[in-house]
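Here is an idea for our session: we take a single protein and study its fold together. To get us started, please write out a protein record for me. Once you have written the record down, we can walk along the chain together.
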Amino acid sequence: MKVAVLGATGLVGREMLRVMEQRRFPVDKLVPLASERSAGKTVEFHGEPQVVCAVSDEHFKDIDVALFSAGGSISRRWAPVAAASGAVVIDNSSAWRMDPTVPLVVPEVNPEDIKLNKGIIANPNCSTIQAVVALYPLHKKYGLNYVSFTTYQSVSGTGREALLTLEAGSRHVLEGREPSSPMVYPYPIAFDLLPHIGAFDSDGVTEEEWKMVRESQKIMHLPDLKVSCTTVRVPVFRGHGESIIAHFDRSASPEEARLILSESPGVVVQDDPANSIYPRPRYCEGKDPVFVGRIRSDTGKDGALAMWVVSDNLRKGAALNAVQIAELL
């Protein structure tokens, strides 16, 4: 297959290349693409340096699959071009996710939606992906009608500059200095929490929170699902955590939920809190599954389950999910 990767020099783009290598995705020709600023740089694929080209119309000729991770405006510009050239675009930005003509896919949840594509398939938000992978098997058993998310999202979800911001700011604090001036956030992120991911609307809801609400409904085909959400940026380099409370049409037991999830694709249950066994971002880094633990009856809502869900946001939350979609194609 001929595969293009737009945004090949970014965190997610490089992770896409690693995932394709590790999963032995059949790439006969790789076309790494980026902006003019990154043209001429190299990325490694199967041990060989690959020269990155500035994106242009000609680079999508004869491409079978194009993996995009270059931002919404870039995707809106180039995804239709790639699709018109005959490629299927798997886009990691938010540009196409809520377009009713574009499938929004998590392979463990709604793989059949891939068949509805007209040249573009949207990759969901990183936090949404890990949430629905954990929730959907329980929904099939009990019938999900309400979910509350509180997310603890690492800085790698913002990009390479955010990683540098956290590293420099942490060093400054530990050396007794003021944290470095914010580069990508409204305040220094080192040793702090920012309940602010994306712009706020007039009701005080952030863009990231609306993503989780609407994307969860679309992916699971539950347009009437009630969703509450608060998203928080935390001083963690990689790996998102989520506190989830889910209410169902039928009362759900923690014991049965553990069994269901332990047999679900893409899920690993780590749930022995008495022995301090539960999912952690440091542990999940570089790993593919969605890790679920602290599964218990909710203390405030009868029949509801509470759980803690962690996954590597650059792997299952972005690159791996995109490559899995390509494998299904």
